Amino acid sequence: MGEDYIRQVKKKLAVSGREKREILRDLEEIFRSAAEEGETEEAVKRRLGPPEAYVRELEEALGEKRGRGSLYGAIFLAALAVLLTGIFLWAKALQKPEDVIGWADGMTDLQVTGPSYLPLLFPAAAALFLAAAIFLAVRYVKRRKR
Question: Each residue of 78-89: pLDDT tens digit?
Fold first, then answer.
């Protein structure tokens, strides 16, 4: 029932395999339930519209669903960037002066050598997460304009 229509839809769909199988199964169910209700195959095809239009509507709906995911991802990455920046600033505030060992009140003769690059990872990661968040947000806005 509706095999030619389903075949055309299958050919035109540009979605993942799992999504394609779900869509085709739903489409088969539409034709099957319509036949049980006495609706003709031609009436179902008219109701669904041409396969190209049906696929376009499906992909727009799926794109909108995926777009929300990129928006949520952008929000998550931005929050992560803020958190890392806060941790970095908090650690910087607790940092002892360079020439003091322990919590001494003055200078000591002991010296610690070698730079620590570990604190630089926090702002670098924060910048990376913020850039990714901006990318996802811009992509979301561009998709919404289409």
Answer: 999 999 899 888
Q: By the 8 A CB rule, do 144 and 70 touch? A: no
Q: In the 3-class helix/strand/coil scheme, how is the chain assigned residue by residue?
A: CCHHHHHHHHHHCCCCHHHHHHHHHHHHHHHHHHHHCCCCHHHHHHHHCCHHHHHHHHHHHHHHHHHHHHHHHHHHHHHHHHHHHHHHHHHHHHCCCCCCCCCCCCCCCCCCCCCCCHHHHHHHHHHHHHHHHHHHHHHHHHHHHC
Q: How far apart are CA 87 and CA 39, in angstroms?
A: 64
pLDDT digits (tens, 9 = 90+) for 99-140: 555 665 666 666 556 566 667 788 889 999 999 999 888 877
Nearby residues of 120 by Cβ (< 8 Å), 6 or more positions away: none
- Specify the pTM: 0.45
Determine the residue type at 33: S
